């Protein structure tokens, strides 16, 4: 009987080991070892850290710079990426991007939506050339995220169809290339949720037209989703492209004391273990629709500071 028990115990342990291996295989990077494309701005390991920070007052240059430096002071380091938003017809770059470059940050320009059929037709070519020339004049690499979240219902009347969006993206890309704006790194960014049913993938312009594959995702008040839950399908599909992956916007609201800090700590762990292909994360530090700000509690700010201080997120010198 003793021998039979021993055999039974070994069999149970073997089964547990197989189950654990299945879990590890399920959660591991589906594309194998990370190979960083040359010139992409992605780190050789770990992830860049960035943010969009709403200034406390108006959107003057001084106010925006003060908001950035305040957050950097709170977390004890410089941001790798400073995020900027521009509507379709607003000129860029501005002094903000030049200030970033002078202070060791990578600017990311999110350029607002425009009717994709109009863009593809060439009707806005003069405006596009002006933007391309201005960006090229910076002489330094910048991230450009055009018409993000194109898969969502609110953009249906201007995105039209995946084919229209792809045609517009490629036309934009080609005009920038013609104007010598080789310093642009193109960031394609649907909603993270749209990767689950294949919606996002239909809008993909193609490997030759994209430098970073990106997704936006939030933990809304009515959900219990973890960071890994939100971005796992994006990660699985994006890893197969061989491109560096980015979370272009992410945020979490306060639900109960300590819950926001716990969620941020879980995001830090997930990025280091379950989502290794994500090479940049850019937090949305703003009170827009919901209060995503990091300083909504001392605990949540401390959790983000711990993430910012982790060597995994300090790949450009901190």
Structure, explained:
The protein is α/β, with parallel strands linked by helices and 318 residues long. Helix content is 41%, strand content 18%. Strand 1, helix 2 (61-75) and strand 2 form a beta-alpha-beta unit. Helix 5 packs across helix 7 and helix 9 (259-273) runs parallel beside helix 10 (298-309). It is globular. Residues 6-31 have low confidence and may be disordered.
Briefly summarize what is shown.
The protein is of the alpha/beta class.
DSSP helical segment count: 10
Number of E strands:
10
Helical/strand content category: alpha/beta
Helix content: 40-55%
Q: Which stretches are low in confidence, meaning pLDDT under 50 for 5 or more residues running? A: 6-31
What is the N-to-C succession of helices and strands?
HEHEHEHHEHHEEHEHEEEH
SSE layout and pairing:
Blueprint: H1 2-27, E1 48-53, H2 61-75, E2 81-86, H3 95-102, E3 106-111, H4 116-121, H5 125-138, E4 142-146, H6 156-159, H7 162-178, E5 184-188, E6 212-219, H8 227-239, E7 245-252, H9 259-273, E8 278-285, E9 287-288, E10 290-291, H10 298-309
Parallel strand pairs: 1-2, 1-8, 2-3, 3-4, 4-5, 5-6, 6-7, 7-8
Antiparallel strand pairs: 9-10
Give keywords.
single chain; 318 residues; alpha/beta; eight-stranded parallel β-barrel; two-stranded antiparallel ribbon; 10 helices; 41% helix; globular
